[in-house]
Amino acid sequence: MKYEKAQNILPHNIIKIIQNYMDGGYLYIPRKNENKKSWGENTETKRYLKARDEEIFNIYSMGVSVKVLSEQYFLTEGSIRRIIRKQKKYG
């Protein structure tokens, strides 16, 4: 997200109205709903986590314990159990 000077993009009368509510400072203007992107859409994070979770489930299925997986992946045992449950359900 990049900052823009209001006076460079908004009409003067709009700026005056905004100043009635906020005189100086930063104001975040959210995207329109139809322009919003889902989490991870711009990065490889979503794909990476999906592959990691599948890998964790496969290793668990081969008999590796939750404790060992949590140490190997630097996650809590609760997180490992959550991943395993999710993979069993939606796998």
Output the number of helix runs: 5
Q: Compute the gyration radius: what is it?
A: 23 Å
Helix content class: 55-70%
Structural category is mainly alpha
- Beginning-to-end CA distance, first to last residue: 35 Å
List unreliable stretches of 5+ residues: none
Plain-language structure description:
The model has no long low-confidence stretch (mean pLDDT 91). Helix content is 58%, strand content 0%. It has five helices and no strands. The chain has 91 residues and is mostly helical.
Features:
91 residues, mainly alpha, Arc Repressor Mutant, subunit A, 58% helix, YraL-like, Mor transcription activator domain-containing protein, c-mor_Regulatory_Protein
